[in-house]
Amino acid sequence: MQMNASANDSVQLAKRLETDGYVVIENALSPGRLETLNASVDRYLDAYPEAWIQMNDHTVEIENVLPRTDEFDGVVEDRHVLDILRHVIGENITFEQFSFMVRNPSPEASAFRGWHRDLTRDYSRRKEIDAISSIYFLTDVTEDDTCFTIIPESHNRLIDLDPADVGPDEGVDIVVPAGTALVFHVGCIHAGKTRPKSRQRKTLHVYYSRSGVPRTAEWSEIPERLYAKTDPALPATLYAKWNETNVFEGVGKIPEGIDRSLPIPEIVKAALIKGKQEE
User: Which of 6, 83, 87, 149 could lock onto 14 through a cystine, CB 3.0 to 4.6 A?
Assistant: First the structure.
């Protein structure tokens, strides 16, 4: 069963997040904000084609966005999400990375991105995963569209579940209207289901963790306008990892043997391919 709630009930949302591993927030983006963010994504795609990470014929991922624009700062600093995280993590919340993804229609009727946990594909390290992600859906997701699907409680009660043992038809499909946000523990097993009649899907992705632990990825730079910001309404540690060099040994770390002078898209693509090979 999909658990929905309004964005202003942070205590109940935090409890659901801790128990189920995910929570769906209805109307997380106002119609005006939704329109603005869709325009921001389109503008960025047009302005920086060299930043596209083309993983296949129908999926484009864009990483390391923030140094080039401030149009997504408000997403990173979403007060509703931060209020939820304050009840789960405490005040030592840290921003980790921001990206967005565009999935175009695909003729592959049975395309399925394998079940996995984020940060590492090493099953023996599943209990080391310590991060929470928020996904903002900028387009409608119906039963005919490509969707995100998740295995509830696989970050705690079902922590010993191996992604390799999960069938393609299991899990909860996140079927929601544009403007919805999904907040989930990235230790939850999840996947992507591609459907042949799907329309284009656009999503924004933000990762958070806590201070005192390695950063989740080393290619999502935090610009000075953010780490130099003084805003008492934000967690004091939100941008504390702007110069953190200790990175979790997983899919967010640049693989050995990769030339670090290469453009960020090539580096990220190599890391993502390595992660998919380990699934």
Answer: 87
The domain limits of the chain are 4-277
Query: Is the Cβ–Cβ distance between 233 and 79 less than 8 Å?
Result: yes
Pair of tokens at residue 231:
């805003």
Q: What's the predicted TM-score (pTM) here? A: 0.92
| Residue pLDDT, tens place only, 19-56 | 999 999 999 999 999 999 999 999 999 999 999 988 77
Strand 172-174 with 132-137, pairing: unpaired
Nearest CA to 24 out of 49, 48, 6 is that of 6
C-alpha span between 8 and 1 (Å, rounded): 21
Right CATH for 4-277 from 3.30.160.270, 3.40.250.10, 2.60.120.620, 3.60.15.10: 2.60.120.620
Q: Which residues pair with 185 in a beta bridge?
A: 132
Per-residue CA distances from 56 to 102, 108, 242 (Å) = 11, 12, 31
